[in-house]
Design goal:
Strand content: 25-35%
CATH class of the largest domain: Alpha Beta
Structural class: alpha/beta
Number of domains: 2
Radius of gyration: 20 Å
Distance between the termini: 28 Å
Shape: globular
Number of helices: 8
């Protein structure tokens, strides 16, 4: 699961006045089920915008847990629910109090609670989204197909920022899924000497820096005396590897979500290693990721190439949940 578990939203239904409009939505009707149906939209507020979705992406971690009915922190999930929090589209209407977003603007939407007959967790897999204007991110020229990746990029940026200044430092990234890929790119952009590692060598091909194929050698043997390591596998047993790889006084960023942490203490103790927890993105991280995409400091295109039309949503989810060679699945809505 990624570090984007809560996303600043609540997995609850919204009991407000229906607008008479409907949206096409991906729905988890019950744990283990997936459907595509119409959902009733609520009336938008005066400070909100209505967005026609063009692309969204599937969160293989969070949405898989939702699909299983076992999302940590949400013990009373209400089904049916609309998943997703990574969408981009075009503004088709604005409330009377909205002044800084216009019809026709291309924006990112990090989930939405806008349905009257299904729950939102976190509501982003929909043809139409309603969101406060202050919470959408204008794309400033980023291709719409790349924009759903802003959520992951912002989460990675938030984790990298926990390390402070990294220029000239040797920083490892353990786990080169989508979160790890973006973390490595942001570290490189900030002047770090990056060391990337994964058990799947194909994940190292487009990654920056020194590469360690964990199918052939151990992380702590190949990478030693690192100033810091970003743990992006989501497996708590890897924290011990990170501790053996860092120098005395080094840092480990936990850029994943764990049900619980159990790890040997000796290396952390002897080296006085600092554990830094990184939660999900804040709005400022979205803006930073947007700017990095726009000025090409970070190139998201290697992660944006696997696109599936929304009519093939079942195949898309099978791939996202079951094919580790595909780091990100993007849904095309138009």
């Amino acid at each position: 699961m990624s570090a984007t578990a809560s996303h600043g939203h609540h997995a609850a239904s919204v009991n407000v006045e229906p607008s008479g409009e409907v949206a096409r939505v991906v729905v988890f009707p019950e744990p283990g089920g997936i459907d595509f149906r119409l959902a009733s939209l609520r009336k938008p507020g005066d400070d909100e915008v209505v967005v026609e979705t063009r692309f969204s992406s599937i969160s293989a971690g969070t949405e898989r847990l939702l699909h299983s009915g076992k999302l940590p922190g949400f013990p009373q999930l209400r089904f049916p629910l609309v998943p997703g929090y990574e969408a981009a589209g075009i503004v088709i209407s604005t409330g009377k109090d909205v002044t800084d977003v216009r019809v026709g603007d291309e924006v990112f939407v990090g989930g939405a609670m806008c349905y009257t007959d299904v729950a939102s967790a976190f509501g982003g897999q929909s043809s139409t989204l309603i969101k406060k204007a202050a919470q959408v991110v204008q794309l400033n020229g980023i291709p719409l197909q790349h924009a759903p990746l802003l959520a992951l990029a912002a989460t990675s940026l938030h984790g990298v920022a926990r390390l402070g200044t990294v220029a000239g430092k040797r920083v490892g990234v353990l786990g080169m899924g989508a979160i790890g890929q973006f973390a490595a790119l942001f570290l490189q952009a900030r002047g770090a000497r990056v060391v990337v590692a994964d058990v799947r060598p194909e994940r190292l091909v487009d990654a920056p820096g020194e590469k360690i194929d964990l199918s052939r050698k151990n992380f702590e043997d190949a990478a030693y005396d690192l100033d810091a390591v970003i743990e992006a596998t989501g497996r708590p047993e890897e924290i011990a590897r990170c501790a053996r790889a860092v120098r005395s006084g080094g840092q480990i960023v936990l850029l994943s979500y764990y049900d619980e942490l159990t790890t040997p203490y000796v290396d952390l103790f002897v080296k006085e290693v600092s554990l830094l927890v990184a939660r999900e993105w804040a709005h400022v991280d979205l803006l930073g990721a947007r700017d990095a995409f726009a000025n090409r400091t970070v190139d998201p295109s290697p992660l944006a190439g696997y696109v599936v039309g929304i009519d093939d949503y079942q195949a898309a989810y099978r791939t996202a949940f079951g094919d580790p060679t595909v780091l990100k699945v993007i849904l095309a809505w138009a």
